[in-house]
C-alpha cells in the first residue's frame, strides 16, 4: 500500500463522511428516509463540472450554485411529497425514482456530456485555493475540512432549536404538531438543507475523481455509499458517519482489490451487504454508540436511541 | 402503420403479464408482512439464471424451467425468511430497507462472483419462432411466458381466495395480533408468504430468460421495475399488481417506438413520480401503511 493510495482512500472516506452527515441529518435527525441521495450528489458534481470545464469558472461558484439547485430540487420534491401525504417508504421510493430518472436523463443529455461524461484537466502540482486545484494531498485537506465541518455542523444542529424540533417530529409527528411545530415546513427545510450539503460533497467528489459520468456519480451505488457511513457508524450521532465511513469504505476497497486479484468481481459488494446486515442485526444503533456505551466515559446527550422508535407509520 | 402499433401494444401486454407476476411477488410480501423486499430484482435474476442453466443443461421446455425455478425459489425464500428477514419484520421501516439493501448487495455480489459480468443468452429455439394471428406477428417465447404468467396469477388468486392457507394469510395481513389470538401460526404464514413471493419472482425470471440475457446487473432494474409496477397499481393490492404490470408493459412498448432507447428506460420512473405525487396509494392502494 503506497502512501498515495492511503491518501486518496482517506480523501474518499472523509468526503463520504461529509455526505453521510447530510444523509444523517435527513433520516437520523429529521426522520425522512432517502435512498436517492445520488440525485443531490450528482447535481452538485455537474454544477461544478459544467461551470468549470465549459466556462472556466472557479469551482467555488459551482459549489454554491450546485447547493442552491440541489436545495431547491430537494425542497420541491419534499414539498410535493409531504403536501400529498407521501410518507415513509413511499417517500423513500420517490427519492430512488427521482435519482434514477435524473441519471437516465443526464445520460441522454448532450450538453452535459451524456454517457461520455465530463473530464477535468489533469491535476496541477501547484496548489490554487481560488480555483480549488491541487494534488492529492491538497484534496485530502479539503476533504478533511469538509468532514470537520460536517461533524461540527451535526453536533451544532443537534443542540440547536431546529435540532430539537426535527427530532421531535422524527419521533412523533402528531405530538410535535400538537405542540405547535409546523412539521410540514420543517420537513421541507430538513430535506432541502440535506440536499444542499450533499451537493457540496458531490461537487468536491467530482473534482477529486477528475471525471464524472451519470452512472458513477448519480447511480444507486452512490446512494448506498452515502448511507453506509451513518448506518454502520450510528444514526443521528455526530461521530457515527465518520466512524462508519472509516470502517466500511476501506473494507469495500480492500475487498474490491482482493476480488480483482482473485478474479472474483462482486466480493466488495458481498462485503458491503454483509456489513449492512450484520450491523443492523447486532448493533442496531451502530458502532459509535456501542463504543460510547462500552467505555461509558462520554455521556451521549439525551436524544433517544433511534432503534427504539416505534414504527413511524403506525 | 396500424398493424405496427397493434403489434407493439400486444407485445407490451404480453410482457406486462410477466411484470405483473414479478410485482405480485413483491405485493404479497408487502401486503402480509409489511416489509418491502428491496432484493426482489435479484430473485428475478436468480430465476433467469435457473432458466438459463436448465435449458442449457437439460434442454427442457421453458415452462418446465419455470416449475423448477418455482420450487427452488420457494425454498430459498422460505429459508431466507426464517433465517434473516423474520428478525426485522417488526422493526422501523428504514431498518428493514437497509437490511434488504444489504441482502440485495450480497446477492448481486454472489451472482457476479459465480457467473461473472458477461451476459448469457438462453439460446432457445423459442426466441426465433413467431406466430401470426390476423395482422399480428408475435414471438412464441413472449406468448408462452405471458400465458404461463397469466395462468399462474389466476391460480394464485384463486388459491389465496378459497384455500385455508389463503384465509390465514389474509387474516395475518389484516390483523396480526388477532391472527395470533385465534391460533394462526404467524411465523409459518410469514415464511410461506415470503416463499411464494420469491417463487413469483423466480418463475417470472425463468419465463423471460429467452428474452433477457442472464446478467447480474439486471437485478437493480428489475427491483425498481417491480416497485414502479406495484406503486402504480397500489402497494399491497393483488389486482393493482396486474394492472400496474400491464400499464408498464404497454407504456414501455409505446415509449420504445416513440423515444430513443435511453428515454424509454426513464419512462417508468417518470410515471412513478407522477403517480406517487398525485395518487400516492396507486390505483387500488391500501389505505395506509
From TrEMBL, chain A:
It comes from the Bacteria. Keywords: Cell membrane, Membrane, Transmembrane, Transmembrane helix. Coiled coil: none annotated. It is a multi-pass membrane protein. The chain crosses the membrane at residues 6-26, 33-53, 59-82, 89-109, 138-157, 188-208, 228-249, 261-283. It is found in: Cell membrane. This is Branched-chain amino acid ABC transporter permease.
UniProtKB/TrEMBL annotation, chain B:
Signal peptide: none annotated. The chain crosses the membrane at residues 6-28, 35-55, 61-85, 97-116, 140-160, 189-208, 214-235, 266-284. GO terms for biological process: amino acid transport. It is a multi-pass membrane protein. GO terms for cellular component: plasma membrane. Its main location: membrane. Pfam families: BPD_transp_2. InterPro entries: ABC_transp_permease, BCAA_transport_permease. Belongs to the binding-protein-dependent transport system permease family. LivHM subfamily. Keywords: Amino-acid transport, Cell membrane, Membrane, Transmembrane, Transmembrane helix, Transport. It is found in: Cell membrane. This is Branched-chain amino acid ABC transporter permease. GO terms for molecular function: transmembrane transporter activity.
